[in-house]
Specification:
With 166 residues, the protein is mainly β. Helix content is 10%, strand content 33%. A hairpin with a 6-residue loop joins strand 7 and strand 8.
Length: 166
């Protein structure tokens, strides 16, 4: 797997947890295994790896849950954002592509664990792309954007994290 020296940053939705990597691996992929489906709350997990020696946590550290004897998964304890999949023995951390500040930089190169791929996966590129129009919630989308507590897609020197209730 090719190592690419580059600067990458990302973090959770609320900004409580942020990371920085100085290198990435050429392994961006969609994992369809049942554990990744459950961990991401989606039909697949979009992942790309950083070598462990190139990854640092720049604001707080994620909470970790050991999903098997070989794997731990990281997430923000405040907002719940899934952040990574880490195999305990291979020296790399697979970051959730959606947690990157620039998720466009890593288009998937492969589908893995396809025995669990949902039957309709191959049809999603053919469905209608409605965008935000008045008929499908443009006002709602604007109201959400105006009142958003989401951290911006870049590092900040300070950020007032709004803690979850309870």
């Amino acid at each position: 797997m090719k190592r690419i020296e580059m600067e990458v940053s990302g973090g959770c939705q609320c900004g409580a947890v942020r990371y920085h990597a100085t290198a990435m691996l050429e392994n961006s992929h969609l994992c369809h295994c049942r554990m990744c489906q459950k961990a991401s709350g989606n039909i697949f997990a979009a992942l790309v790896a950083a070598p462990d020696d190139a990854l640092s946590w720049t604001r707080a550290k994620p909470s970790v849950w050991k999903s098997s004897e070989l794997v731990e998964r990281g997430f923000c304890a405040n907002c719940g954002t899934p952040l990574f999949f880490h195999h305990l023995e291979n020296g790399r951390t697979n970051l959730m592509i959606g947690s990157l500040d620039d998720p466009h930089a890593f288009s998937p190169l492969a589908n893995t664990c396809t025995e669990n791929m949902v039957a309709w996966f191959d049809t999603i590129t053919g469905i209608e792309n409605t965008g935000a129009t008045e008929d499908n919630g443009a006002d709602w989308a604007a109201a959400i954007k105006e009142s958003s507590n989401q951290h911006p897609d870049h590092d900040t020197t300070s950020w007032a994290v709004r803690r979850r209730d309870g």
